[in-house]
Amino acid sequence: MLPFQTLAPWLEMRFSRPISRIALDAGSSCPNRDGTRGFGGCTYCDVEGSGTGALKSGVELAAQLDAGLRKIARRPDGAGAIAYLQSYSNTYVSPARLDEVLGVVEARLGNAPVPIVAFSIATRPDTLPDWAIERLLRLQERVEVWVELGLESASDEVLSAIRRLHTLAEFEDASERLARAGLLGVGHAILGLPGDGRIGAQRTAEALARSALLGVKVHHLMVLKKTQLAVQYRRGEIELLDEAQYIEWLADFTERLRPDQVLHRITGDSPAEALIAPAPNFDKNRVREGLARTLRARGTRQGSSYPATRSAL
Questions:
Q1: Which of 32, 42, 152, 225 lies 20 to 30 angstroms, CA to CA, from 127?
Q2: What is the phi/psi pair of residue 129, to 5°?
Q3: What's phi and psi for 50, nearest 5 deg?
């Protein structure tokens, strides 16, 4: 047994079958790319918005989903699917466009080669209007809905420096509204952001633990091509964590989460042709094993520091 909660066993327990995720690109945008809040996007985000870029290549959303479902259907283990809108901010659209996108998923519920057991939509905390939550609640009458919110850091100064251009308060408000609505939430964090440091990473875990979000995705800072961060890195302005440092920081982070929160991801990766540093990608198995070994050596586990963290607030 690992001293932290991972996604695969949680999914199999929840849905009584193996589960695969289908990453989808709906061609969404972002308020700090189109001038609403800023231009150029987050300093670490590439031109695909941390997604597949499939829509730009001409593969329409329905075709993306159908291709993913057919691929899972070839598995011999009776797996189900999670339809995952990944790229950019997917509630930063008009009501008509959100209806159109969700309609693609709705049309395949109960009418697909494998069951779609959940729908997951990634967005920013400052682009989650109440009407979008209401629309997602209508979808949840037919299939479980998850909403992924990018926090990245609990420091407003760091969020400004990396051009996230939202605040911790906006994240807290969005996660609270999701909880009131009864939608499952997943929070994102990046360890090693410029100016954040080890203490900043710990405070981000504490902010996620205070929220009602059930899921957490965390990874180390990566420098990708076609990003503002790449320019800073080449100038020698960015210092990255190595794998051993990341595991130590990740252990701090995991100790501060709630015991019930599920770690959907503990590493990041990138296609080799897009990655500048750290290269190669951190090894997922080595990080998972290193985290388990570090927590056991400390005599701790996920949530060990949560009660103390909570009482100090």
A1: 225
A2: -70, 160
A3: 60, 30
Any idea what the CATH number is for the domain that residue 163 is in? 3.20.20.70
Tens of pLDDT along 193-238? 999 999 999 999 999 999 999 999 999 999 999 999 999 999 999 9
> Which has the closest alpha carbon to 47: 216, 229, 221, 195?
229
297: containing domain: 7-305
**Residue 311 in domain:** no
Which amino acid, 188?
H
In a domain, 2, yes or no: no
Domain membership flag for residue 132: yes
Query: CA–CA distance from 256 to each of 58, 86, 135, 277, 304 (Å)?
Result: 43, 27, 33, 28, 7
Q: Does 14 score more than 70 pLDDT?
A: yes
Mean of the per-residue pLDDT values for the chain? Answer: 93
Q: Are 178 and 91 in contact (CB under 8 A)?
A: no
**263, 279, 265: which is closest to 222 by C-alpha?**
279
Question: Please, are residues 255 and 203 in contact by the beta-carbon 8 Å criterion?
Answer: no
- Tokens encoding 2: 């690992």
CB 159 within 8 A of CB 185: no
Tell me whether residue 13 is in a domain: yes
The number of domains in the chain is: 1
SS3 string of 166-183? CCHHHHHHHHHHHHHHCC
Question: pLDDT for 155-183, tens place per residue?
Answer: 999 999 999 999 999 999 999 999 999 99
Cα separation, 29 vs 8, in Å, equals 30
